[in-house]
Amino acid sequence: MKGQSAERIQSLFPVLLASLLVLGTAQLVFDSLKSGKSYVFQYYGKPAKLRKSVFVLPEDRMDESCNLFEGKWVWDNVSYPLYEENSCPYLVKQTTCLKNGRPDSFYQNWRWQPHACNLPRFDPLKLLDILRDKRLMFIGDSVQRAQFESMVCLVQSVVPKGKKSFKRDPPRKIFKAKEYNATIEYYWAPFIVESISDHATNHTVLKRLVNLDSISKHGKSWEGVDVLVFESYVWWMYRPQINATYGSMEDVQEYNVTTAYRIAMETWGNWLESTINPHLQKVFFMSMSPTHLWSWEWKPGSRGNCFNESYPILGSYWGTGSNLAIMEILHEVLQDLKINVTFLNITQLAEYRKDAHTTVFGERRGKLLTKEQKADPLNFADCIHWCLPGVPDTWNEILYAYLLQSYQNFL
Ligand SMILES: *[C@@H]1O[C@H](CO)[C@@H](O)[C@H](O)[C@H]1NC(C)=O
Ligand SMILES: *[C@@H]1O[C@H](CO)[C@@H](O)[C@H](O)[C@H]1NC(C)=O
Ligand SMILES: *[C@@H]1O[C@H](CO)[C@@H](O)[C@H](O)[C@H]1NC(C)=O
Ligand SMILES: *[C@@H]1O[C@H](CO)[C@@H](O)[C@H](O)[C@H]1NC(C)=O
Ligand SMILES: *[C@@H]1O[C@H](CO)[C@@H](O)[C@H](O)[C@H]1NC(C)=O
Ligand SMILES: *[C@@H]1O[C@H](CO)[C@@H](O)[C@H](O)[C@H]1NC(C)=O
Ligand SMILES: *[C@@H]1O[C@H](CO)[C@@H](O)[C@H](O)[C@H]1NC(C)=O
Ligand SMILES: *[C@@H]1O[C@H](CO)[C@@H](O)[C@H](O)[C@H]1NC(C)=O
Questions:
Q1: Which pLDDT score is estimated for 172?
Q2: Residue 392: which of 114, 48, 81, 100 has the closest Cα?
Q3: Nearest residue to 240 via CA among 23, 21, 34
Q4: Are residues 308 and 182 in the same domain?
Q5: 32 and 79 both lie in a single domain
Q6: Do 392 and 282 belong to one domain?
Q7: Residue 254: CB within 6 Å of ligand 6?
Q8: I need a surface site. Which of 20, 108, 255, 273 has the fewest CB within 10 A?
Q9: Where are the alpha helices (DSSP H) in 228-298?
Q10: Residues 6 or more apart from 214 whose CB is under 8 A from it?
């Protein structure tokens, strides 16, 4: 049953595959808002009550004005990857691209270099110190699950056998470092608010129905969690409209996705404001994870997708899959909140990484692709999910940088 449940969660992909073209259609329908200058808003103030402070080396201190999201990828096969694919027992088949036959591993060897400062070196022991007696929870869809797995892999090698555990308790997955009494958790909630796709192992995928004003069932499981990291995007982007309820569960209506997304985020915001203790809890929101479905976007005239791409895009690039209207809604909703939510704007840095998706070296309906499917990347390449080690590790390095900053010892 355990194995089965793991596989079921991963079966999200076929739907996404089915929706690939639709994602494109949706994009044409939305008005793209003009992009403003990117900036990071709402850094945390210092937590009022720290149980323990963590010593931060001078070189790991960051200038608060540094924008970690503006930078470039640099080749670094000395320090990267930060862990080996086969050394982390918690990776699901969906992300283990080398094991699944991917011939090149260059995608593992790039380091994100912000223009204005350096990211602190990821130190798993320091993170565990930060997380002592705490819970860190990732909430969202399968992209978010990869970020959870990445975080577990980044940390688990420093925890000896017998001192760690991994448990599946749908819709949650929980890694625990026992000596630290620290957990890193995942919670399946593809729309954040409630929906008919909430069953972690048996969710409807083609049919979507979101309850825009319902969050309390989920919220009960998030209460009191010390660090919450939310994400929700790709499940909304199936069609330009989405079926949803507001108020009566019987009253199903089609909403424009942007309208529905805003209402859902406001429901979430109200939940945060009524539940979160900003002195004890921290909240992050991940911006959209980009897709690379059409190679003509970065290679005019070509007709492929992300398959067979082995280098990042150099120079400026923003694909049509990353909807700026959604970005703007997030910006507005977060700005209006009475509590601080740190928005990790990872979309641009991941936009460059057309080389880092699972392509045909992932899964479909919980199974690795057959030889025939692998030979047909136009129809079967997954250009939504990411190989691990890979891009989600960088998201976690950035999350780590923020956590370090919040908990550092200001001596
Ligand atoms: C996130 O970054 C992108 C690209 O730099 C930018 O266009 C967008 O405005 C940023 N979003 C927010 C909410 O700051
Ligand atoms: C949010 O963070 C800012 C900047 O760190 C701080 O000045 C402000 O007091 C914080 N607001 C709340 C409500 O915690
Ligand atoms: C690292 O990259 C350099 C430059 O491409 C190459 O010469 C070297 O062989 C690589 N080292 C390893 C261990 O792959
Ligand atoms: C372990 O951590 C949890 C929070 O994650 C906390 O409620 C509990 O008190 C901690 N246990 C001990 C023995 O400190
Ligand atoms: C999955 O959900 C559907 C619809 O709710 C149900 O008919 C089916 O029996 C479920 N399958 C399993 C294995 O639980
Ligand atoms: C909403 O649900 C109805 C009835 O199931 C269906 O016909 C329609 O296509 C759905 N709309 C969307 C946008 O999915
Ligand atoms: C939904 O989107 C369409 C197309 O962008 C637009 O014409 C329509 O006015 C929108 N409807 C609502 C209720 O916002
Ligand atoms: C992959 O790319 C290489 C070089 O860019 C090319 O020679 C090769 O034919 C491509 N393979 C496929 C299957 O598209």
A1: 96
A2: 81
A3: 23
A4: yes
A5: no
A6: yes
A7: yes
A8: 273
A9: 257-275
A10: 193, 194, 267
Domains contained in the chain, number: 2
pLDDT in tens, 161-177: 999 999 999 999 999 99
In-domain check, residue 411 = no
The closest ligand to the CA of 347 turns out to be 1
The residue range of the domain holding 8 is: 1-50
Q: What is the pTM of this model?
A: 0.88
Distance 375 CA to ligand 8 centre (A): 12
Run of H or E including 247: none
C-alpha to C-alpha distance for 373 and 295, rounded to whole angstroms: 19
- At 49, the pLDDT band (50, 70, 90 cuts) reads very low
Are 298 and 373 part of one and the same domain?
A: yes
Q: Is the pLDDT of residue 254 over 60?
A: yes
Instruction: List Cα–Cα distances, 12 to 9, 142, 192, 251, 324, in angstroms.
Output: 6, 7, 16, 27, 24
Q: Which of 63, 66, 73, 74 is nearest to 38 (CA)?
A: 66
- How many Å lie between the centroid of ligand 3 and the Cα of residue 91? 26
Specify the pairing of strand 182-188 against strand 172-177: antiparallel
Read off the pLDDT of residues 273-314 as tens digits, 9 standing for 90 and up.
999 999 999 999 999 999 999 999 999 999 999 999 999 999
What was the pLDDT predicted at 33? 24
Known catalytic membership, residue 322? no
Residue 42 lies in a domain: yes
Q: What is the pLDDT of residues 366-393, one digit of tens each?
A: 789 999 999 999 999 999 999 999 999 9
Query: Would you state the pLDDT for residue 59?
Result: 67
Q: Whose CA is nearest to atom 9 of ligand 2?
A: 45
